Amino acid sequence: MILFYNKKTGEIIGEIEGRVHDPLVVRGAKISVSGTDDKDIGKYIVPTKPRKQKGRIVELVPDVPFTDKILLFEQDKSEIYKHKLALDKSGQIKGIIKLYGSRSG
Amino acid sequence: MTNYGIKVSQAGYDVKTANKENLVFSSKYNTLKLFSNGSGSQSVPAATAPYGPPGTATVEITHNLGYKPAFIVFCTSIWRSNDKFSPYAYKSIGAISPDGGQYAVDTTKLYIHLYNGDSGGARTIYYRYHIYYNEL
Question: Which CATH class name applies to B34-135?
Answer without folding.
Answer: mainly beta
